[in-house]
Amino acid sequence: MSGHTLIVGGGVSGLSVALVLLQRGHQVTVLERGHTGGESSWAGGGILSPLLPWDYGASVSALALRSMAAYGEWITAIEAVSQLDTEFWRCGLLAMAVTVPEQALTWCTQQGMVATREVPVSLCLSTVAGEALPLWLPEVAQVRNPRLVAALRAAVTKLGGTIHENCTVKGLDAAGGVATTLQTTAGTLTADMIVIATGAWSGLSLTNLPAVPHVRPIRGQMLLFKLEPGVLDTILYRQGLYLIPRRDGHILVGSTLEDAGFDKSTDAVTLARLHREATELLPVLAGVQPIRHWAGLRPGSPDNIPIIDRHPDFDNVFINVGHYRYGVTLAPASAELLVDLMEGRTPALDPAPYRWAAALQRRWGDTL
Ligand SMILES: Cc1cc2nc3c(=O)[nH]c(=O)nc-3n(C[C@H](O)[C@H](O)[C@H](O)COP(=O)(O)OP(=O)(O)OC[C@H]3O[C@@H](n4cnc5c(N)ncnc54)[C@H](O)[C@@H]3O)c2cc1C
Questions:
Q1: CATH number of the domain that 25 lies in?
Q2: Could you tell me the pTM of the whole model?
Q3: Count of CB atoms within 10 A of residue 210's CB?
Q4: Cβ pair 328, 307 in contact under 8 A
Q5: Residue 255: is the preceding peptide bond cis (ω within 30°)?
Q6: CA-proximal residue: ligand 1, atom 26 (nearest)
Q7: Residue 117 in contact with residue 136, Cβ under 8 Å?
Q8: What was the pLDDT predicted at 3?
Q9: Edge-to-edge strand list for the sheet holding 135-137
Q10: For ligand 1, is residue 316 a contact (CB within 6 Å)?
Q11: pLDDT score at 126
Q12: What is the pLDDT of residue 367?
C-alpha cells in the first residue's frame, strides 16, 4: 500500500486508523462532517472493557483483550505526541449482582483477566457492602473519552495528518472496482485508499457506496454529576447501570439502550430513573442534581461485532465500523487489524469474524 488515504469519519474509529497509518509512514486526511469526535466518541463513558466481559462471544473478547493489553502503551504514545492528558486511569470496576460469579471467575482466569470476590475495604461504601455477589476487576481502566479524542486529533495533526471538519462525504466514484474520488461538500477529492469510519451512519448508503450490513444507531442517555474528588474511586456496575468517577469529582451515570433512529433527544423519565438507580448505589447523589444530561448514538451491530474489512465492491475501500457499546475499548486493536489488512500483512488476530461476509450472516435478536 502506498499513497494517500482519505478517512471518512473523525470519531475514535477514524482517528485511531489515521494514527496507525501515520505511524507506519502513510499520508492521511480525515474528513469529518461535524467536529472531530463530536458524536458517539464524545458521548460515551470511556470504560475500557466490556461491562461483563464473560457475557460476550469469542470475537468480541479477542478484540477487547488485545486492545485492553495494549491500551497503556497506546495512550502513552498518544499523550507523548499530543502533549495532552487523556486521564487514563486504572480505577477498577466493581460489578454487583453478577448472576453466576463462579463462571465469571473461571472465564477471567482463562483469559488472564484479574478478578476476585474479595472487595478491598476501601471500596466498601455503605450500600456496596451489602450488595450480593460482587466481583472486583482491579485492572479495568477508563479514559476521559472527550480528552482522548482531543489528544488523538492533536497527535494525528502533529504526525502530519490533515483533518477537514465540516466536510460531509456524499458518495464516491469508481472505475473497474477501484474508488477514484470522493464527492464531498468541500468538492471532489482523490485518494489511493479510502477508509469508512462513519459510526452509526455507516448503516446508511451514500452515492455508489452501499450501507454496511445491519449497523444501526442505538441511543444511550447519560447523566453527569459533580461531587468532591475522592467520593468514588472505582467504576460501579449493577444490572445495566454504571457510575464512572473522574478524578476531578465528576461522576457519569449511564446508560440506556434505545432503538430510536437518529434521534438524540433525552427525556425526563429516563433522567429520573437513572438518578434513582444511581442513588441506590451511591446515596450521596440523592441530594445532588445532574449538571448535564445528553444522548449519543452508538454504532450498533448484532452481537456487538464490528466490521473491519476491505469493502466487497472496491479494492481500495476499507471499513472500520459497528463497534457498538465498546468502540473506545476496541479502538487500538481494530485500527491495528484494519491497517494490517490494508498493507497486506498477516494480522495478529484472525480477521474472519470481522469480515463483511460474516456481518451479512448475523441478525439482530430481540434484545439490543
Ligand atoms: C452513552 C454511551 C456510552 C458509551 N460508553 C462506552 C464505554 O464506556 N466504553 C466504550 O468502549 N465505548 C462506549 N461507548 C461506545 C463508543 O462511544 C462508540 O462505540 C465509539 O465512539 C464509536 O466510534 P466511531 O468513531 O465508530 O463513531 P462516532 O464517534 O460516532 O464517529 C463517526 C463520525 O463519522 C462522522 N460522519 C458520519 N457520516 C459522515 C459523512 N458522510 N461524512 C463525513 N463524516 C461523517 C460523524 O459526524 C461522526 O463524527 C458508548 C457510547 C454511548 C453513546
A1: 3.50.50.60
A2: 0.97
A3: 11
A4: no
A5: yes
A6: 199
A7: yes
A8: 81
A9: 135-137, 93-96, 235-238, 241-245, 250-254, 216-226, 292-300
A10: no
A11: 53
A12: 86
pLDDT for 133: 73
pLDDT along the chain (368 residues), means of 10: 88 98 97 98 98 97 98 98 98 93 96 92 61 87 98 98 98 96 97 97 97 98 97 95 98 98 98 97 95 98 98 98 98 98 97 98 92
pLDDT of residue 120: 78
Instruction: Tell me if residue 246 falls in helix, strand or coil.
Output: coil
Does 124 fall in a domain? no
Query: Does 204 reside within a domain?
Result: yes
* Antiparallel, parallel or unpaired: β 178-184 and 135-137: unpaired
Domain residue limits at 50? 1-88+142-214+301-368
Q: Where are the beta strands (DSSP E) in the chain?
A: 4-8, 27-31, 93-96, 135-137, 162-164, 169-175, 178-184, 187-190, 193-196, 216-226, 235-238, 241-245, 250-254, 292-300, 307-310, 317-321
The answer to whether position 6 is within a domain reads yes
Predicted confidence at residue 125, as pLDDT, reads 58
* Candidate from 30, 41, 144, 208 with most ligand 1 atoms within 8 A of CB, to mutate: 41
**3-state SS class at 268:** helix
**Ligand 1 atom 35 nearest Cα:** 9
How remote is the CA of residue 97 from the centroid of ligand 1, in Å?
A: 29
The residues pairing with 29 across neighbouring beta strands, listed in sequence order, are 6, 162
- Domain membership of residue 93 (yes or no) is no
Question: How many folded domains does the chain comprise?
Answer: 1
* Model pLDDT, residue 73: 98
Q: What is the DSSP letter of 71?
A: H
Do residues 218 and 259 make contact, with C-beta atoms less than 8 angstroms apart?
yes
Q: Extract the C-alpha cell encoding 62.
A: 479477542
What is the spatial distance between Cα 98 and Cα 85, in angstroms, rounded to a whole number?
33
